[in-house]
Design brief:
With 285 residues, the protein is an alpha/beta fold. The chain has a single domain, classed as Metallo-beta-lactamase, Chain A (4-Layer Sandwich), CATH 3.60.15. 33% of the residues lie in helices and 21% in strands.
Length: 285
Amino acid sequence: MIRFAPLLAALLLSACASAQPMADDRAHWNAPFAPFTVFANVHYVGPAGVSSFLITTPEGHILLDGGLPESAPVIEANIKALGYDIDDVRILLNTHAHFDHAGGLAALKAASGAALYVSQADRAAVESGHVLIGPSAGIDFPPAHVDRVIADGETIRLGGATLTAHLTPGHTPGCTSYSMTATNAAGAAHSIFFHCSSSVAGQSLAPEAYPGVVADYRAAFAKVAAMQADIFLANHGSFFDLEAKRARQLSGDADAFVDPGELQRFNTLMQQRFEADLARESAVR
């Protein structure tokens, strides 16, 4: 059963529902969190509340999500703490164009010289640093130039690592999840899913925040329902029990992050919450 860390979940909902998150909320999200290896060449390098993942390869690295604007130095320091160099990051990916996941992209791109890949529907927000719709509207972040537009089903290959993009819109029009398979030194292989976001978190469903948002959410839920992953990761640690799993890993559980049923439990829970929010907003309207 998924257990959302109460404090982080509350911070996520309150911050996304307000026009300007409180400074305390952002400070808590950006609190230090020791970087570590999730599995094989997949590493957690984000702060405590907003995720960032480093996929390392012999030919350079892929960095997924940039956190808040103030997260960039934290992420860079975490990469260094693991023995890697920001200069070796070749590709920057973004799950979606909200201030708490795209905010650090410009600084990380400047530090690394990496190419930034973003979906077409979120490109304008990333390149302007301004979101026009949803709970993050008006919460600006440093703009970053997009070097390549990623399409649904497109693969990204670097140094033997292959990530597949899955458009899962709703939370933003271009919300993009990623999947890959990683193999450790012992030959064990696990499928990994990096979830964009399917939370409503203050997004208007009735009336629609953007035309088709309800259909987008439902299509994304259906798409994810057909997928399987041994390791479920997401853009907020509270969504995948980051702290509890890391504690188990430190206690000797090498498979602390392995749970083949977690992705579908999460998807079902988010769909139930979405439908409840839609019914409530429709009734009020």
